[in-house]
Amino acid sequence: MEIDYSKRSFSYYPTNAIVYATCIDGKWSAPVVTNDFNLSLHCFAGVFHYASCCFEGLKVFRGVDGRVRMFRPDENQKRMKSGADYLDMPAPPMDLFMDMCIRCVQENWEYIPPYESASASLYLRPVLFGYNPQLGIHSADDAMFVVMASGVGTYSGAKSLMPGTAVISRNYDRAATFGSGGYKLGANYAQSLHAYNIAHRLGYRELLFLDSATHTHIEEFGSSNFFAIKGNSYITPDSSSVLPSITNKSLRKVAEEFGLKVERRTVYVEELESFDEVNSCGTAVVITPICRIDDKPALEDGTVTREFKYADECGPVSRKLYDRIIGIQKGLEEDTYGWCTFINEH
Ligand code: PLP
Ligand code: COI
After folding, report:
1. Tens digit of pLDDT for each residue in 276-323?
2. What would the 3-class secondary structure string for the chain be?
3. What span, in angstroms and rounded, lies between the C-alpha atoms of 152 and 7?
4. How far apart are CA 25 and CA 27, in angstroms?
5. Structural domains of the chain, ranges and CATH numbers in brackets
6. Which of 47, 164, 176, 274 could link 129 by a cystine bridge, Cβ 3.0 to 4.6 Å?
7. What is the number of the ligand closest to the CA of 80?
8. What is the atom index within ligand 1 of the atom nearest the CA of 247?
9. Average confidence (pLDDT) over 65-90
10. What are phi and psi of 187, to 5 degrees?
11. Model pTM?
């Protein structure tokens, strides 16, 4: 049956198979491909208690030339390794990480959306977690690494580049100043779930987190990094508690290519008034324009103290950046930086 990817959002959709490997006593097993998505885990495994878990997200596209491309997987391995090092647990080495991602794509080949399905992709979710039974508080000695896939549409389910609203989170922080925000740990997302539920109930698409120490500068959205355009500048927060986004890193390169001045620095909440274009960026959201940001003393509070308004459509500079990134991912533009890994069916 033909899949209508235009009706899909960013969700779990069944595929054929997952690929997993385990690291026991410091030795990684060969990858196993299975169509059984129910893993067998010991209930004392560290992941269930002390959240020894980090994960990644990357996209696979079918290009205009029919060839299949995976976007910057090496960056995902490096970030997963940094998260695993932070958790003091084993990480899959580069060759294993790449092999398993490629294998997962090959096993789910028919779920790679056709080129014509504009913003759809096969999203890969590599997950690493503590595997051995334990009780005391310590890092996991053994790990399981799983790569799974879902054929997804846009993050919001709406058309790509459709602007959304955001609310500043003043009474819920995502990451502590000297905490784990700079790593893609499952635990960081757990911290945002309750606040997200409130924001979503109030109709906001996104939550904008501030630095936890002073609540004066912008960190990032719950799902993605923050960037703004002001005149000829591309402005994005520089903070060790912000996740180093691979999309943002790529956009900064493209911005330089377009002659924009890239400013990676502390970004104050007050500056929101002066920006021409405000966006969230990340693998799942790609670039999603923000048309309004509300500031409230508390999410649950009915009063909005300040409202920052932007255009109801994607700004021209952000659109240009979007077209270049998508162009590279879908083979419409030259991949000057060698960001794409090509995958053959077998
Ligand atoms: N920030 C957060 C909190 C995220 O969840 C993500 C998504 O992965 C990003 C930023 C963007 O990172 P990337 O562009 O590597 O997907
Ligand atoms: C991604 O963009 O890959 C993420 O993991 C973000 C998440 C909110 C889906």
Report:
1. 999 999 999 999 999 999 999 999 988 999 999 999 999 999 999 999
2. CCCCHHHCCCCCCCCCCEEEEEEECCEECCCEEECCCCCCCCCCEHHHHHCCEEECCEEEEECCCCCEEEECHHHHHHHHHHHHHHHCCCCCCHHHHHHHHHHHHHHCHHHCCCCCCCCCEEEEEEEEEECCECCCCCCCCCEEEEEEEEEECCCCCCCCCCCEEEEEECCCCCCCCCCCCCCCEHHHHHHHHHHHHHHHHCCCCEEEEECCCCCCEEEEECCCEEEEEECCEEEEECCCCCCCCHHHHHHHHHHHHCCCEEEEECCEHHHHHHCCEEEEEECCCEEEEEEEEEECCCCCCCCCCEEEECCCCCCHHHHHHHHHHHHHHCCCCCCCCCCEEEECCC
3. 9
4. 6
5. 5-152 (3.30.470.10), 164-329 (3.20.10.10)
6. 47
7. 1
8. 14
9. 98
10. -60, -30
11. 0.98
Cα(177)–Cα(322) distance, integer angstroms: 31
pLDDT for res 301: 87
Q: Candidates 224, 242, 245, 249: which one to mutate for ligand 2, based on the most atoms within 8 Å of Cβ?
A: 224
pLDDT at 158 exceeding the cut of 90: no
**Residue 142 in this model has a pLDDT that exceeds 80:** yes
CA 287, CA 208: separation in Å to the nearest integer?
15
| Residue 23 Cα distances to 5, 93, 143, 146, 221, angstroms | 36, 11, 5, 11, 33
From 154, 223, 226, 251, the mutation candidate for ligand 2 (largest count of ligand atoms within 8 A of CB) is 223
- Confirm whether 253 is a catalytic residue: no
- pLDDT mean over 138-149: 98
